[in-house]
Amino acid sequence: MKETVIDAHNLSKIYDEKTIPVYALNNVHLHIQRGEFTAIKGPSGSGKTTLLNMIGGLDNPSGGFVEINDTNITALKGNRLIDFRLNNIGFVFQSYNLIPVLTAKENIEFIMLLQNRPKEEREKRVAELLKQIGMEDKVDKRPVELSGGQQQRVAVARALAPKPQFILADEPTANLDSIAAENLLDVMLKLNKEENITFVFSTHDQRVINRARRVITLEDGKIVADTAPTKIEHLLYEK
Ligand SMILES: Nc1ncnc2c1ncn2[C@@H]1O[C@H](COP(=O)(O)OP(=O)(O)OP(=O)(O)O)[C@@H](O)[C@H]1O
């Protein structure tokens, strides 16, 4: 059964409204169902990061609102928004953003520590995630001892640790070579297929676009194309 996880209504974003306004998003409507693997593409400056920031509650729209599982996050303020993000949304960034002094295990565990999850639960979840990203042997390595691809896989595991509603990834393969990008996509697609994890990511990378199940194209802050999955892909979707 389909379940809407992200519902963006009539979103617009105007930066520098009082000086020289930049219309970064223009009346965008977007609905994402649980289990989607969706790429947002578009030329530089078309509004991809702005859209992800709105969906992730990292910035406020100038107009419209975003519902995550029926919670209007645009209306949430302060600690309520921070708590909602922590518990519901996983973020993956182009530059990995791992904490340099922490090991792979500690980076993955970090958000669960903020959530005061019991030690036993944390250890179990970290072990499970390290296995899923194929990095059980790197548990005690610090980011500097890992390749870019390995760091990004740890970043995906960290985002998944608190069992969020979905993962938002802003250009996750931008700093990776072809092999590392393919490996990361393999891990993300496996998590999508086997655990029904919802991924929404922005990308310029054709290799990533080719493997997405739904591709949304932005131009000048507007959705100009939204390719639905083919019939066969749709069946896979509904599995
Ligand atoms: N904080 C900001 N202040 C002012 N203008 C901004 C800000 N952030 C983005 N913009 C402008 O908003 C528009 C959309 O930017 P955005 O970063 O969302 O595009 P993008 O598609 O993610 O680009 P890229 O692919 O280069 O990352 C651009 O014109 C950009 O210059």
Tell me what the structure shows.
Keywords: ATP-binding, Nucleotide-binding, Transport. By secondary structure, this protein is of the alpha/beta class. The protein has one domain (4-237): Rossmann fold. Helices cover 37% and strands 26% of the residues. It has helices at 48-55, 78-88, 104-114, 119-132, 148-160, 178-195, 206-211, 231-237; strands at residues 4-15, 22-33, 37-41, 63-68, 71-72, 89-92, 166-170, 199-202, 214-219, 222-227. The strands form two sheets. The protein has a six-stranded mixed β-sheet with strand order 6-7-8-3-9-10, with helices on both faces. A four-stranded antiparallel β-sheet has the order 2-1-4-5, with helices on one face. Strand 7 (166-170), helix 6 (178-195) and strand 8 (199-202) form a beta-alpha-beta unit. The longest helix is centred in the C-terminal third of the chain and has 18 residues, at 178-195. Bound molecules: adenosine-5'-triphosphate.
Write the layout of secondary structure elements.
Blueprint lengths: L3 E12 L6 E12 L3 E5 L6 H8 L7 E6 L2 E2 L5 H11 E4 L11 H11 L4 H14 L15 H13 L5 E5 L7 H18 L3 E4 L3 H6 L2 E6 L2 E6 L3 H7 L2
Helix pairs in contact: 3-4, 3-5, 4-5, 5-6
The chain binds adenosine-5'-triphosphate (ATP).
Adenosine-5'-triphosphate binds next to strand 2 and helix 1.
What keywords describe this structure?
single chain; alpha/beta; six-stranded mixed sheet; 37% helix; binds adenosine-5'-triphosphate
